[in-house]
């Protein structure tokens, strides 16, 4: 069950997602919290960095690891605006993150219950407590608007190219 603190930190993650969007990236934001303090922040940067691992969660995990001087992030909570993909879910398991709170469900690649459930798979050496759907409408709307605008831009570019060829 989500708490007022969950909503507060998801609001912060949404601000990071908007930062990603301002840089032309898919608007996903993430932060890692330890004892009520944000110790890691991230936003998607795969496109600009030409890096398949440039996901918001990975950035937040890396920053938190440097902060704690340990890759094991025990007793932490990861807040992310979109359900993690298999890579990010695997990284949270490996890092021993205690809890995952995410906003929008990802019916295509979600690995915290939608398509896969790596975060709670008992065959792995660690499982997370997972809370999905926190600020779901706002997180989903941000992503939907981004992709709607992207499709419009692609369509306009194709139309311009076609008109220039005529």
Keywords:
Cytidine Deaminase, domain 2; 166 residues; five-stranded mixed beta sheet; tRNA-specific adenosine deaminase; metal-binding; 5 helices; Cytidine_deaminase-like; elongated; alpha/beta
Number of helices: 5
User: How widely separated are the two ends?
Assistant: 59 Å
Number of domains: 1
CATH architecture annotation name? 3-Layer(aba) Sandwich
Q: How many strand segments?
A: 5
Uncertain runs with pLDDT below 50, 5 residues or more?
Answer: none
H/E series = HEEHHEHEEH
- Strand percentage lies at 15-25%
Radius of gyration: 17 Å
Strand order of the largest sheet: 2-1-3-4-5
Q: Provide the helix percentage.
A: 40-55%
In CATH, the homologous superfamily goes by the name: Cytidine Deaminase, domain 2
Please give the CATH class.
Alpha Beta
| General form | elongated
Task: Summarize model confidence as the mean pLDDT.
Answer: 94
SS class: alpha/beta
Describe the main β-sheet briefly: 5 strands, mixed
CATH topology: the name is Cytidine Deaminase, domain 2
